[in-house]
Amino acid sequence: MKTLIALILLLAAAFPALAGEARPLANNEAAEQHMLALTRNLRCLVCQDESLAASQATLARDLRAQVLQMVERGETDKQITDYLVDRYGNYVRFRPPFVAETWALWLGPFALLAIGLLVLVLIIRRRAGRTDSPLDSAQLERARALLAQNGDTE
Question: Exposed, middle or buried, 116 (CB in 10 Å: 0-12/13-18/19+)?
Fold first, then answer.
């Protein structure tokens, strides 16, 4: 039994030695670095909260390879970004431009904050405007009668 455990541990220790270095995506190191810099500002369409550069989703890998090909062909960052935006919409950008279709994205948080502050001010003013009026004699007699019924007289 001890021999079996030792053999398993030996094999488990040997597996990392069999792992190789991750092969580069491109033969051109500069093109690969350019692609990685560009895809850090683009959103993974599968993961949604990760950059295209960091995501391990299959679609992200395919898009990185496609961006790399475009970089190697000499296309500009704007051309590459425009291609991805045309294909997937402004959502692919981590910082979409301020255009008609994204105004709610940019102004929405400020609008919600302003509405919340307005509601808070209205509630505070309404409460400040209220004054507790003293009970008239009829209301006071009714309260005493109710207390007397429950045995809670003064």
Answer: exposed
